[in-house]
Amino acid sequence: MVFFRSVAVLSKLRSRLAQQSTSLASARWFQTQSAADLDLHSQLKDLIPEQQERLKKLKAENGKVQLGNITVDMVIGGMRGMTGLLWETSLLDPDEGIRFRGLSIPECQKLLPAASPGGEPLPEGLLWLLLTGKVPSKEQVDALSKELHSRSKVPDNVYKAINALPATAHPMTQFTTGVMALQVESEFQKAYDKGLSKSKFWEPTYEDSMNLIARVPVVASFIYRRIYKEGQIIPADRSLDYGANFSHMLGYDDPKMLELMRLYVTIHSDHEGGNVSAHTAHLVASALSDPYLSFAAALNGLAGPLHGLANQEVLLWIKSVVEECGENITTEQLKDYVWKTLNSGKVVPGYGHGVLRKTDPRYTCQREFALKHLPDDPLFQLVSMLYEVVPPILTQLGKVKNPWPNVDAHSGVLLNHFGLSEARYYTVLFGVSRSIGISSQLIWDRALGLPLERPKSVTMEWLENYCKKAA
Ligand SMILES: CC(C)(COP(=O)(O)OP(=O)(O)OC[C@H]1O[C@@H](n2cnc3c(N)ncnc32)[C@H](O)[C@@H]1OP(=O)(O)O)[C@@H](O)C(=O)NCCC(=O)NCCS
């Protein structure tokens, strides 16, 4: 079957032969060991049995251990603080922010391979880390880059499906349509229809996930060029890594923009499992819907203004500040504008979070990028002013649990600086990055045999009666 990777099988066979043979063959053994080391699928295949055992043991020995109480507030309050999901690839601490397989963002910036020494992490490295829990070597990352290029061909039906929409359709609508059109090539669906044992579910999920990750930048840049650049498509440059090639296909080749895109794709990839897009994908995939169906569902959640669309809203809002008050805005004027926004019933986009209670480290690393590469950009200076002005005002409201900026408060001004100024498109960039985190977890969902998700719901009447009895 297509999804069985010949490399792993071949390398094992060759290695056995080589061990029995001459010194010349020993050299071949070394090469083939390296080939398996460089192959992400082989690495996963080795890892999965031990993680399956780990989960089995956890369930057998601790299945009845209580994780906390569920309150009525949690049930009617969007399940805040309710621990209810298994998500291996990342974990969010309210104060410290996200850790990808245990590594904070600064640690990822230090440890993951970069295009050049001291540069931003390559998203392929993050993908490797999320899937295996191990920091890859530069050679492993380069091999993965090549693999993603080799999987990146997008079938014609995808372009046709997108072109069937008016160019005025929101970029996220076009993106979800493109992902749904990619689904016709799902290996998981084909394999499942033929009949496949549960222990093998992860293999075609891996194939779909890697194909999806490889293809979404092509689809996303097609949409960008279609809407904003008169349909002039820029072909992929196979000499470039994932993030740089994405930026190139969008039409942005400034080396600093390539670095920004590597950082952007890395930090937006995953934010544990409970956020709307990640949770949606996990839920939909639990019905054994394939990765394309699951990811398209996630994108529809990402397109909401309280989630991924906030990055669009932030830049539009910042531009509206400049339009109304000019670029040399004073602190007092800015405070008035924030109050005006709040008094009109709107939220201040880019501030607040469902889980975080401090400044988002994804904001901080973007701020550091700006300080290094665009310190004099007027919109960056406005973003810095907002960092001073907004938190005290939100605190004054008395109800906002986290007055600090999140990831979306910063990304727009960076992209805008390098010419990517079309704010309505920004959530698509977020979506491309999310394909990495979401797909990594979906592979583990199937490898660990996680079941159909089906929490219990109740009515208000049920809650009232329960509380009466409990009183
Ligand atoms: C992210 C967000 C949806 C989290 O929601 P949450 O978990 O319900 O947040 P809280 O518990 O702090 O909300 C309590 C109240 O403060 C309000 N609040 C939270 N953040 C706010 C903000 N940035 N501006 C104005 N009001 C805000 C909420 O709307 C809510 O008001 P309500 O009780 O009248 O409905 C919320 O902070 C928000 O809307 N932020 C702006 C949009 C954004 O940046 N989204 C991207 C998130 S990564």
Automatic annotation (TrEMBL):
It comes from the Eukaryota. Transmembrane segments: none annotated. GO terms for biological process: carbohydrate metabolic process; citrate metabolic process; tricarboxylic acid cycle. Keywords: Transferase. InterPro entries: Citrate_synth-like_lrg_a-sub, Citrate_synth-like_sm_a-sub, Citrate_synthase, Citrate_synthase_AS, Citrate_synthase_euk, Citrate_synthase_sf. GO terms for cellular component: mitochondrial matrix. One of its GO terms (molecular function) is acyltransferase activity, acyl groups converted into alkyl on transfer. It holds the Pfam family Citrate_synt. The active site is at H307, H353, D408. Signal peptide: none annotated. PROSITE patterns: CITRATE_SYNTHASE. Belongs to the citrate synthase family. This is Citrate synthase. It comes from Phoenix dactylifera. The lineage of its organism: Eukaryota, Viridiplantae, Streptophyta, Embryophyta, Tracheophyta.
